[in-house]
C-alpha cells in the first residue's frame, strides 16, 4: 500500500476553516516521501493530531471561554484603550456572547481541525506496516473523542465521521455521550500506560471517561432545571478514578506550584497535558496574560512584559478570605501564593542575580516589585546584579501611578484601570525562551491526579452522600503539598464545600465554566454579571459555521437563544 504523509501546512481545507463539517484533508503519496520508513511515516501522521492543542489552549481561545465566562476571571477595557476588542470580553463575562464572537469561532475551527487531523490519521495509519501504528491508531481515535468531548461541552454537539469525503453525523444529548464513551472504551486496550503526559495514555483515557460520566447529566440535558446524576454514572466515575489511582503511574506533587513550572513535563501529577517542551515551540501566554505591562519576568528580555489582561473577581477572591478568616489566605494555603522575590518581605533585598530572579506565583495582590527598565534596558546594581524596586506604570505613560493591584475590578472607568484586580501567575516563565513571550516550556495541564481525587469525591457525594469518603479524598490532596506547610485539613464535606475547594485547587486551569454548570452556579450573579439565562450554558455555534453549512438545509442548527 502507498505510504501517505500529511502536509501539515495544508491539512485543513477551506471548509474546515469556515467552520463547516466536511472535514477534508489534503495528502501526498509516497512519491514525495522517498526514503521514509513506515515508522517515520507513522510519526509524521500522528504528530499533527496533537499539534493544534497549543493553539486551542491559548489565552484568547479556550481559556477565554472557560474562565472569562465565570466568576474566576474578568477582563475589562483596560484604561479605555486595551482589551476593548469590540466588547467581546465584556460580553463573555456577562453571558451576552454572540455567534460572531471571534474567540468562539477560532476555538471552534481549531477543535474541528483537530478532528480532521485525527480522521486523516485513522484512515492513513492502517496503510503502514510498523507495530507502533496500533498504538498510534488508538491515540488518533481517542483524540477524535477528546475533541468531540470539547465540542460537546462547549457547543452541545459531537461530529461523527470516518470517511473524509462524507458529511459528518451530528449527535447531541445521550447519543453524543454514548458515542464518546464507546470510542474511549474501544481504544483504551491499545493505549500505552507510560507515554508521558503529552500523548493519550491509558490513564488519560480513564480520566476522560471519568469526566464524561461526571458531566453526563449536563450533556444529556444541558438546560435542565436540575441535573439528574445517575448512580451508574457515578459508579463509573469511581471505577475509572480508582484505575488511575491504583495504577501507580501518578503521584501528587509536594510543591503545588512545581506542577506549573517550565519543567513540569516530568511532574508525576500530570496525566494529560499540552506538550510544550522547548523543541515543540510552545507558548508562554498562560504566564504573561494576567501580569502588568510593567512586570518583566525574564532579565534577558526587556521587551517581554505582561499584557494587563484579566484579574480575578472580588467574588472569587472572597471565597478564599471567607474560608480562612481571620487569617490571610496566603499564610494558610500554599496554593494561594508563593513569594519568590524577597524584597516583598525585606525591602533591603533590592539586588538580585539573573539566575535567582523569579516573579512571585499564585494570586498577586497590592504593590508589585520587579525589574526596572529605563531606555529599553534593565537597571543594575554596582555588583552587576539586577535592580528590583517598586513598579510604576511606565509602559502606560503613567510613571507616578504604582503597579498596586486592587481587589476591586469591574467595567466602570475606575474599575477598568491598569492596576485593578488581583492577578494570577500560575505557570512559570521559561528561562530558555527565545522571545520571553512565546516558546514556553511549561506543559498546559488538561488533566492531573488531584482532579481524579476530586472527581471521585464528587461522585461519592452525588450518589450516596458519602461525605466521609469524599472528605478523605479532598484532605489527602490538601495534605500532599508538604514542600511548605500544607493547608489545614477540612472537618466536613458537602457539594458546596467541594465546589469551593475545586476553585482553590484548579483556578485558572480552564475547568471553571464546566464546574459552575455542573454545580448549578453558572446562572448565579457576580461582578458585572447578572444574566441568569440557563440557555447560555452552551455557546452559540459560530455564524461562519452556520453559513458554511447553508447548502445543507436543517443540517447544522443554531443552539437555542442565539
From TrEMBL:
<keyword id="KW-0472">Membrane</keyword>
<dbReference type="Pfam" id="PF07980">
    <property type="entry name" value="SusD_RagB"/>
</dbReference>
<keyword id="KW-0998">Cell outer membrane</keyword>
<dbReference type="InterPro" id="IPR011990">
    <property type="entry name" value="TPR-like_helical_dom_sf"/>
</dbReference>
<keyword id="KW-0732">Signal</keyword>
<dbReference type="InterPro" id="IPR012944">
    <property type="entry name" value="SusD_RagB_dom"/>
</dbReference>
<feature type="domain" description="RagB/SusD">
    <location>
        <begin position="415"/>
        <end position="530"/>
    </location>
</feature>
<protein>
    <submittedName>
        <fullName>RagB/SusD family nutrient uptake outer membrane protein</fullName>
    </submittedName>
</protein>
<comment type="similarity">
    <text>Belongs to the SusD family.</text>
</comment>
